[in-house]
């Protein structure tokens, strides 16, 4: 038991290689290279000895270092805002476990034939498979074939992440060795078939059989079995719900492998290839991977902390399922399925900094890349509320006017700068700050920026940790790049009436004995409360039709059914919406990962998702709004000019 047959087989493989070298040496001795070849033979002999010693040492360690699957299965538990479990280690929440005796032999044999045909003979890793994969990858100049065995994949599912690093691969091999030395092949195969991922939030062959075909495993046809076997190699490529053409090609390949390994006959293969498959309709189902981006972001945050994972830990988050569901439903409704257009969104709670919902893309099965925290894009006009806050600090009012017309700015020691409005449209008249914010007038923004001095906005961004900021004329138009989490910092202070706390997904981390981490609610007054309130009220101008001038207000027609401060931002490549009220801060981006030009038909995608999300959240309740302080008065003004008007709209001003 200590040294199974599979290990002996691997040693014999290495010994066979040694004999090949010895024969090669014998041939070369005929060419009068005896001394040199003796040295080579000695080196090879020593190398073989060290390899054998290392091999024995690793498997001796693997035998004695006990590995409890039950303990590891509950190593990390993640809770939502209501203390309900949303994740348990790599096994996920509510994972159903099927004993190997209930998994059909044909399904077992099919997975072994495709994923690891020497599974029953290797000691956890397959030297032949690794060698072939290495040669194939070198020939193609990229990784096109993996060398992981079923045991290694099971080890990764149990204990590790999907991180592709050398150190993680070594860990995987060590865990695989321990699994092989302490558990039978039957136990390992059972674990693998229960933890393998099929996309769409589905784990395990039993759940996959029900999800894709609505059948128990024992009732699957050969064609259906082949389809299931092909999916885990790349759910984003081979799921029939994602790309049926790719899935069919993969199924045909699997059937040929099964026929080659004599698991099916040629006639059965041909019949299976001709069988037309019908899948369960999930178009109206809730996305089973609804919280996967959020969970991955939490685990990423955890890995950055100085916390040992060799213990059972509980992570309490700010995650709220109803908020996430509203966001996901809006994304599914408004994101085109036949386009590579992507999205990212974050919903954060003012005053606490808690991230309640997060989406890193339109579909986790298609892409696990989390754009909300990793994709840095130009923020466009969403920077303007901070610019106008700075202006209020310097004595501007919502009625302060600048001339909106085509302008070229002649700047000292710089090239002439000629910004333009969208569509090259201008008021060609004086407009107020209210109107400039409503229509997203770029000339007004640059004039304000240059009047204040380029360092003013730059220094404000530095307060929020936006160190990539550069004091340039174009920064007033949002040419600085940030990810959504960074951009949310600015709106956190505006939405929290000037108070600031760092946004966080994690509320606290603890073991059964102690608290390891608490989100430091280090709330500090970063911005002036009164000016934040004035900006918040001014941001309702983006859907106030009385601002209509040379164009419509930027969010007109996309406002939700409740009052919110809203600012959109659009560049040639990106479409963003930032919005808030006292309960929610909403951030969303839409665009293409490769920075291609954004077609006009996609400009409204982020706005539609925002509107539908907020309307769902406030379907059965009233929306709150801010109250002016004692230092603020309400005025009815014509928002275009900023002059008092009985027919105007209400905006807030300092009571001077």
Description:
With 656 residues, the chain is an alpha+beta fold. The strands form six sheets. The protein has a five-stranded mixed β-sheet, covered by helices on one side.
What amount of the residues lies in strands? 5-15%
The percent range for helix content is: 40-55%
Q: What structural class is derived from the secondary structure elements?
A: alpha+beta
Q: What is the arithmetic mean of pLDDT? A: 84
| Cα radius of gyration in angstroms | 31 Å
| Spatial shape | elongated
Low-confidence stretches: 1-9
Outline the biggest β-sheet: 5 strands, mixed
Strand order of the largest sheet: 2-1-3-11-12
Number of strands: 18
Distance N terminus to C terminus?
87 Å
């Amino acid at each position: 038991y200590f040294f199974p047959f599979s290990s002996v087989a691997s040693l014999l493989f290495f010994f066979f290689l040694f004999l090949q070298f010895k024969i090669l040496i014998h041939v070369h001795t005929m060419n009068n290279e005896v001394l040199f070849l003796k040295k080579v033979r000695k080196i090879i002999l020593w190398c073989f000895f060290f390899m054998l010693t290392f091999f024995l040492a690793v498997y001796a360690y693997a035998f004695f270092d006990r590995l409890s699957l039950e303990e590891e299965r509950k190593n990390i538990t993640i809770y939502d805002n209501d203390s309900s479990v949303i994740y348990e280690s790599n096994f996920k929440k509510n994972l159903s476990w099927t004993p190997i005796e209930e998994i059909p032999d044909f399904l077992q044999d099919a997975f072994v034939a495709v994923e690891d045909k020497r599974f029953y003979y290797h000691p956890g890793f397959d030297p032949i498979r690794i060698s072939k994969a290495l040669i194939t990858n070198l020939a193609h100049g990229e990784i096109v074939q993996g060398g992981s065995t079923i045991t290694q994949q099971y080890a990764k599912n149990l204990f590790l992440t999907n991180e592709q690093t050398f150190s993680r691969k070594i860990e995987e091999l060590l865990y695989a060795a321990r699994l092989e030395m302490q558990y039978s092949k039957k136990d390992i195969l059972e674990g693998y078939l229960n933890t393998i991922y099929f996309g769409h939030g589905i784990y395990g062959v039993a759940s996959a059989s029900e999800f894709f075909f609505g059948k128990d495993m024992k009732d699957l046809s050969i064609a259906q079995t082949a389809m299931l076997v092909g999916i885990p190699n790349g759910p984003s490529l081979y799921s029939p719900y994602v790309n049926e053409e790719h899935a069919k090609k993969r199924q045909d390949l699997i059937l040929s492998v099964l026929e080659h390994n004599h698991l099916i006959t040629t006639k059965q293969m041909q019949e299976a290839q001709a069988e037309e498959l019908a899948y369960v309709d999930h178009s109206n189902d809730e996305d089973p991977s609804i919280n996967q981006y959020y969970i991955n972001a939490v685990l990423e945050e955890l890995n950055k902390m100085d916390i040992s994972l060799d213990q059972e830990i509980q992570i309490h988050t700010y995650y709220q399922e109803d908020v996430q569901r509203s966001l996901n439903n809006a994304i599914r409704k408004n994101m085109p399925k036949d386009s590579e257009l992507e999205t990212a969104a974050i919903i954060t709670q003012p005053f606490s900094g808690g991230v309640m919902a997060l989406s890193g893309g339109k579909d986790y099965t298609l892409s696990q890349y989390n754009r909300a925290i990793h994709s840095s894009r130009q923020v466009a006009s969403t920077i303007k509320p901070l610019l106008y806050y700075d202006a209020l600090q310097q004595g501007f009012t919502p009625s302060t006017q600048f001339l909106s017309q085509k302008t070229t700015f002649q700047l000292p020691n710089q090239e002439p700068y000629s910004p333009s409005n969208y569509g090259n449209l201008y008021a060609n008249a004086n407009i107020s700050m209210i109107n400039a914010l409503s229509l997203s007038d770029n000339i007004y923004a640059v004039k304000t920026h240059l009047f204040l001095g380029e360092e003013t906005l730059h220094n404000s961004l530095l307060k929020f940790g936006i160190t990539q900021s550069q004091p340039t004329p174009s920064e007033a138009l949002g040419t600085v790049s940030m990810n959504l989490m960074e951009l949310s910092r600015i709106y956190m202070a505006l939405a929290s009436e000037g108070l600031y706390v760092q946004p966080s997904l994690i509320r606290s981390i603890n073991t059964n004995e102690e608290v390891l981490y608490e989100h430091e609610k280090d709330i500090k007054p970063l911005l002036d409360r009164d000016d934040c309130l004035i900006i918040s009220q001014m941001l309702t101008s983006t859907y106030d039709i009385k601002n209509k001038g040379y164009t419509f207000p930027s969010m007109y027609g996309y406002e939700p059914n409740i009052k919110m401060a809203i600012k959109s931002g659009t560049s040639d490549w990106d479409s963003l919406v930032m919005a808030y009220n006292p309960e929610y801060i909403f951030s969303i981006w839409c665009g293409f990962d490769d920075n291609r030009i954004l077609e006009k038909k996609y400009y409204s995608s982020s706005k539609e998702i925002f509107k539908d999300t907020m309307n769902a959240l406030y379907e059965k309740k009233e929306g709150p709004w801010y109250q002016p302080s004692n230092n603020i008065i309400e005025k009815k003004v014509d928002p275009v000019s900023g002059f008092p008007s009985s027919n105007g709209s209400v905006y807030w001003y300092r009571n001077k």
